[in-house]
Amino acid sequence: MTSPLLQVSGVSKAFGGVVANNDISLEVPEGKIIGLIGPNGSGKTTLFNSIVGYHPIDSGSILYCGNDISNMHVPEIARLGLLRTFQQTRVYGLMTCMDNMRISVPHVNEGFRHMVARHSESVADRAEELLEFVGLYSKRRLMAGDLSFGQQKLLEFAMALMNEPRLLLLDEPTAGINPTLINGLIDRLQRASETLGITLLVIEHNMRVIMNLAEHIYCLAHGEMLADGAPSELQNDQRVIDAYLGAH
Amino acid sequence: MDNLELLIVAPVFSMQLLIDGLLVGSIFALAAYGMALVWGVMNIINIAQGEFVILGGYVTFVLAQYGMHPVLAIPFSALTLYVLGLLVYRIVIVRIVDRDLFISILATFGISILLQQVMNQIFTADVQTVESGLGTWFLFDDMVTVNQVKVLACLIALVVGAVLMVFLKTSRTGQAIRATAQNARAARILGIDTDKVYATTYALNAAICGAAGSLVVMTWVIQPFIGLAYTVRSFMIVIIAGLGNVFGVVASGMMLGVTENFAGFLLGAEFQTAFIFSLLVVILVWRSWRLRRKRQVLR
Amino acid sequence: MIHRYIKWGVLIVLALGAPVLMPAIKTQLAMLMLMITFALTWDIMGGQMGYNSFGNIVFFGVGMYVTAVIQRDMFFTAEEYETMAGALGAIDGTDYLTGLVIGLAASIVVCVVLAAILGAGILKLRGHYFAICTLGLGIAAAEIAGGIDYIGAGSGLVTPTFPNEYLGDRGYFFYYYFLVLAVVAFLVLSWLYRGQFGLAINAIRDDEDKAEAMGIHTTRYKTMAWCISAFFLALAGGAMGNLVGFIDPSEVAFAGATYGVWMVLMAILGGKGTIWGPVIGAAVFHIMQELFWTYLFGWQRVALGALIIAIVVFFPEGIMGFVRARWPELLGHKVDHQTPESRIVP
Hints:
Radius of gyration of chain B: 19 Å
Oligomer: heterotrimer
Helix content of chain B: over 70%
Number of helices of chain C: 16
Order of helices and strands of chain C: HHHHHHEHHHHHEHHHHH
Radius of gyration of chain C: 21 Å
Strand content of chain B: under 5%
Largest interface: A-C, 50 and 37 residues
Helix content of chain C: over 70%
Largest sheet of chain C: 2 strands, antiparallel
Distance between the termini of chain B: 36 Å
Order of helices and strands of chain B: HHHHHEEHHHHHHH
Distance between the termini of chain C: 49 Å
Structural class of chain C: mainly alpha
Number of strands of chain C: 2
Largest sheet of chain B: 2 strands, antiparallel
Shape of chain C: globular
Number of strands of chain B: 2
């Protein structure tokens, strides 16, 4: 059995006295789409932040491609091909969509020559292709900050794809997106996974989305790993239902 | 560094530096307390802080010229600066209070240059001081001298600080200020006139600086162009102590006073100002380096 | 296309011919070019990258001192300098130029290395911490320079006399020097801004956390931006010392209260984060200053303070920002007039 792409084992993180993550373990095998669910405040985003190097973890280990990344900084981890998007979208507001895409090229093995040179035509072509893929081609010359929230979310997703990650952590990709567009987004996420070979770890509140998308789902509650399994198993798991409905 | 030997041979000199440092440090702490107030409540770093201090000193200086005792002039300095603070708030600060921090830094820096130059035009660039008429205590076989005026200034600074603390804790205005500091939007929704709170806070800070300035002119000297050093001292004290930590402010103020006195003695007086500004750079870099090890960024 | 060539042609002829047409103000014209360089180099960090620095003046001052000290030590012994203080003896054109070129080269090396070293610590700071830290840096540099006897301490340093008989008029020489410097700075920066460097520093300005999360080498780009500023400021400072003839630590070299603030002001006045903004801002500010400054009788620095406040409070987007808001199409910006279908903000 090959080792998973991302292996989180026994990770704990507390802010002051508040335990946000307690002894969390999960595995993301290469090429799969994995879901992460849980009620508000259950520590999902904290776990994302721990993985991508936003803050130090108190204990445990995070292995990516078999290497420990729990002491590395955000940009270093990102250059290894482990990327995340933000719950509150973050794009470069005063730059055009195309410029947002251009600067999102992979930055690994970048020499001084790359830093000062202009991008080749193929970069622009790829950027336009990906903007087309998320349906923003007609907006490519607009300032990213002038886009609507949902459009910014799509742009952020396209920027992440531009970076050619191996593993992409998506924090609520459908939050704030027009319901009619959600089906299209699910389709795009699946296509990204299949055609581009990107492994996905997705935080999602929309049950319909995550049940359709993910092959395996982890459920967090109160900072602890509550349950995990295939979507169909979790749907009928009494603990998960209780956690969401607040019964104890 | 010749003075280092002197300190080793006669350790009693360090007692002198220590006492002077502690006493002057309390004045730094007072100005820093004002800066922390404005920073915490309005999210503005007031670069004109030092100029308010120096201006307070000049008010006392002028009143002393007319024969008033400098200690009695403190309330007048504070009052004058309170009015000036209100004016500055109404003309400038009110327009930048919700804008990004750099705008406020640059705008208050402009105020700082403006005040500096106005003071220079009115009072010339000469160094000024005011005689308090108080005596000196001699300790350790007359090896250590303690100016009584410095002790008095230290006590006044601590009393003013304590009064302010009580004011913020108990009075209605104080409560409104603290509420606005925590969440201005919520305060506004609950009917607190945040504009008035901001005006009061800024003016109060100016008044605190005015009082600190009176103490400076009594114990030390003032000059139109040394204000920025007080701003930087206040800033250092606040970032070491953190916002809203009164005892931290007093402790780091005194620590800074002592450090500065020793540095001035060891490096020579011509490098004392250089030391203050270099210390600022070192403290900021050191703090960000420590945070970086924790995967965090100083902001 | 023809239209464009004519425009550039007129600009070039004007720039080359200005001191000949107006010989009385050639030093002021040289200063104008220096101001443009100031504003352009400040804008790399302040405008394009969002790191508002009050400390760039450090590189100007260091460059000035390094050049002057090398010129002095190459051709004069310590005793000679001591006895002739105030009037360094005449040296011929070749010696002068050799000293100047070696001095400028050394300034570049020193300033760029200094920028890299300082940057390693200071560029980790964000926002207002960076601004205040660099403010402290500028003043610390002036105070330290004022205490070192080797470079004349508080009483200043005299630069070698310009050999008029060999190199022609000093005013012309330095006008063309600063013209070339400003033009080169402009061309290099507009080239860099079009490449990945420009995109990366814009990204850092808009959202540094996002830039880090996308794997951009933020530290490298920031250090590089700071070093480029230092490079041009070293060249500017080295020549400025020779133009003025006398280096005072806090009034000429580390002149935070004048040049240090002006460079910020000019860039903001013209419009931060654009390539033409700083140029326009510098020109407007400098002309305004030359026209009105002398009528203020000592109150000019008071006026400067008032001007900073006025510009920052009422005109923070600058001239270019004003033009962009009024006529966005003129600057090639596209605007979506159609209302987006989903403006859902969580």
